Amino acid sequence: MRILVFGAGVIGITYAWQLSEAGFDVSLLVRKQRLVRYSNSGITISCTDVRGKEKEYKKTVFRPRTIDRIDPNDRFDLIITAIKNFQLNDAVPYIAKYSGNAHILFLGHLWDETQLIEKHFSKERFFYGFPAMVLGAQTINGINCYLFGNSSTFLGEPNGKLSPRLAQVRGAFEGSGLQPRVLNPIEPWIKAHFAYQATMMGPVIKAGSFRLFADNKKLIGQLVRAVREALIVARKAGIKADGLFPFWLFKLPAFMVIPMLKKYFNPTMQAAMEASIKYNFEELKQMYLMLTKLARQNNEKTIYLTSFEKYLPEAEKKFLQ
What we know:
The chain is α/β, with parallel strands linked by helices. The protein has 13 helices and twelve strands. It has an eight-stranded mixed β-sheet. It has a four-stranded mixed β-sheet with strand order 4-3-10-9. Helix 5 links the parallel strand 11 (153-156) and strand 12 (180-182). Helix 8 (217-236) crosses helix 9 (254-264). The longest helix has 21 residues, at 187-207. The N and C termini lie far apart (41 Å).
């Protein structure tokens, strides 16, 4: 299987690295200004690997085949699109034009973007996924990533069936340590996770850091209530995800959910989320503002969800330096 990873951020590089280590023929699409640097010096990867019983720290130089444009003559079997949500408007038409007959895996946050994808591709050409097991941030010469064993790379077809291509990609990911898990259906899960991630940014920027947020039971309680509101907004938008794990947990009383979240937000997760929120701040901000705008359009009472907006200007100064 010939694979192109479209996007040289944390997710794209991590997946290209792990697939390449497993022996797959992987190319990485990068911006032209990085093409020479990555081709000559490689990509420095610092990795905290928590997939095994013991935490493992790795540092390596990854030297993938790099390209700065898609050529249909390359005849890729699979294109993994691993870019930020707001980049899809430009990327989807480009991929549709030059991808030949490759199958496209859209790996990341999606909401209305599913309509854009369906406009440019038949359902036989694309499927969805979410890289829940990977967090991190970019550095000057590469990335700093975290690989978690208690999560997965979620995969699924638009029609909810297990197709031969999905089975093939699941096998490739499994052999690469990318912990695939097929969801049926996957769209509601991805969109509910969009709402959850957008909501989480609020109490974190209110606290000033993820560590301070994770140590504050009151703020975690505000997160629980804000997520409940976000899931109501999602439900009104036709997204039925309340019964999916982990989102049904937020139906439980807050005094039950808060201890579970505090345990989940261990020191390694705190460091990973701190790096990830700073790296993805612009994407998360746009997701959050879209969610609050939708709530207002639907006249939803989102007291907790919208209460964090006033902290955005200060957060922009901190995270967009």
